[in-house]
Amino acid sequence: MRNEYERDDAHVGTKLTYLLIGGGIGAVIALLFAPKSGTELRGDIADATRKGIEKSKETAAQLQERAGEYYEVGREKASEYLHTAQEKAGELAEKARTAAASTANPFTAAVEAGKDAYVAEKRKAESKSITEGRPSYPVKEENN
User: Fold this and answer.
1) What is the pLDDT of residue 141?
2) CA 5 to mean position of chain CA atoms
3) Cβ count near 49 (within 10 Å)
4) How many angstroms separate the CA atoms of 88 and 81, rounded?
5) SS3 of 141, please?
6) Using CA atoms in the order 99, 105, 110, 111, what is the torsion angle rounded to 10 degrees?
């Protein structure tokens, strides 16, 4: 799941890419229609290309730096979630140990759990037949 910062970064990166491409196309078109000699025009195109490449490298470095920052934040969050999950698992294991220890006879506890499960399933089946509205006895249709 992408978070808000990743979406903003994607939009910024995409917009910046389109801006650079559009600026490059506009510069080339402006140079082609400018009244200059062939040598001057080629020199201007080469300069514009160099500037575009330099700007692209700067942007790539900035995006790489941001990606590194987001990676670190994500790694820290994942570590926090893992620690929390481990704590919860430990708590649940302790509760299970306590419940097992408090039972005098494990066989009796298993029988009681089975009874509870049977009663719960029976209630579900009864409520399902009521909600479906089907009678559980045969219904005779009268012919008039």
Assistant:
1) 63
2) 12
3) 13
4) 11
5) coil
6) -140
- The torsion region of residue 26 among left (phi > 0), alpha (psi -120 to 50) and beta comes to alpha
Per-residue pLDDT in tens (0 to 9) along the chain, 144 residues: 455 555 666 677 788 888 888 888 887 787 677 676 778 777 877 888 888 889 888 888 888 888 888 888 888 888 888 888 888 888 888 877 777 766 656 677 777 788 888 888 888 777 666 655 555 556 566 665
3-class secondary-structure state, position 101: helix
- pLDDT score recorded for residue 8: 62
Alpha helix locations (H) across the chain? 4-33, 38-102, 106-132
- Per the listing, tokens 């470095």 go with 61
Structure tokens given for 34: 């400018």
Taking the C-alpha atoms of residue 92 and residue 82, their distance in angstroms, rounded to an integer, is 15
Q: Please tell me the distance from the alpha carbon of residue 65 to that of residue 72, in angstroms, as a whole number.
A: 11
Are the beta carbons of 16 and 55 closer than 8 angstroms? Answer: no
In the block, residue with structure tokens 């009663």: 119
- Rounded to whole angstroms, how far apart are CA atoms 22 and 45? 15
- What's at 120, amino acid-wise? A
